[in-house]
Amino acid sequence: MNFLFQVVITLLISGGAAPPDAQLVVEVTCTNTQEGAQSVEFGPEGGTDQVTFTAIGDPNNVECTIEQTETAGAVSVEIDPDSISVDSESSLYEVIVRNTFPEATPLTPVEPAPVVAEPAFTG
Fold first, then answer.
1. What is the mean pLDDT of the chain?
2. What is the pLDDT of residues 49-59, one digit of tens each?
3. Residue 117 falls within a domain, yes or no?
4. Which of 30, 43, 102, 108 has the most other CB atoms within 10 Å of its CB?
5. pTM assigned to the model
6. Which residues form the domain of 68?
């Protein structure tokens, strides 16, 4: 009998906004599974996605690590938890990944210089 389990990944954005073309990639690597490693890609708004693994043999021998391989310039990445010990009592594991981006610097308005115009024709 195959033991299937899922890892649900929620990626949150904090601080400033992620770049509009951001590709944020989280990889889950599990020992003693048919799949080995699987990646999930998120856009600049983050979100939730999941990957499913099939344990080979005893699911109690499965260990998973979670890492973010593409950060799009995030100044901080926190993963909780960053590893999972699978047991045969649970088939669902949740991971929170928090990316912090720098706050946007507000632009300071510049006063326009006064325009001094000389008449082109004075006749």
1. 92
2. 999 999 999 99
3. no
4. 30
5. 0.82
6. 3-101
